[in-house]
Amino acid sequence: MTAGEKAKAKTEQVTGAVKEAAGRAVGNERLTAEGRAQQMKGDARQAKEKTKDIGKR
Fold it and tell me: Region 42-50: what's the mean pLDDT?
């Protein structure tokens, strides 16, 4: 996994977690859903990069 892609994945995961928590705190379902979606996007990016790394071995 390249450092840049790893950082992007982690940033998306953390940003999503913050959005989800903020959405729950204020009762905003849309913000909560956006946060979950962003976390999943980060998870998918991370999984893709890990798969690439396995293929290089």
Answer: 91
